[in-house]
Amino acid sequence: MITIKEAAIARFTERNDVWCADVEVKAEGVEGTLIAEFAATKSDEFDLRHVYRKDASREIDWYDNNLHDAYQNVSKELFGQPSNKSKWGSREEFIEGILAFGSIREELTEHYRLSRTASLFHADDVEDQTYLH
Questions:
Q1: Domain total for the chain?
Q2: Among 67, 43, 47, 44, residue whose Cα is nearest residue 56
Q3: Rounded CA separation 18/29 (Å)
Q4: Structural domain boundaries enclosing 89
Q5: Which one, out of 8, 48, 66, 119, has a CA that is 20 to 30 A from the CA of 20?
Q6: Residue 70 within a domain
Q7: What pLDDT does residue 127 have?
Q8: Average confidence (pLDDT) per 10 residues, the chain, 133 residues
Q9: Cβ contact 128:116 at 8 Å
Q10: Between helices 104-117 and 85-100, what is the axis angle to 10°?
Q11: 31 inside domain
């Protein structure tokens, strides 16, 4: 089990036509800062899409630096494959630990609720689509 020591929403952004929230996480037993990427689902839950290890440095990343990989996807390293039942449970505990930390769940819920309401298209079928902008 990975215990969450700190969690804070870093930004809301769009990746591959899906609105995402990046949550910076410090966890017990995990070196450095992790970025947990969440997207909302139709049922008002949150899907953990990826987990990245943040290796960005202000000294070398203040511009578009391709000399190193500042954000490495560590989802498989942390949780293995979804079919691996023993590690899949730790993934769910990790998600719940982040969402339960402080006001993370409430902030995500409010942001995505407002995103749906403010949709440019504001049609009846908006609720069935993954965030329009």
A1: 1
A2: 67
A3: 31
A4: 4-128
A5: 66
A6: yes
A7: 52
A8: 91 88 93 92 87 74 56 84 58 94 94 73 51 45
A9: no
A10: 80
A11: yes
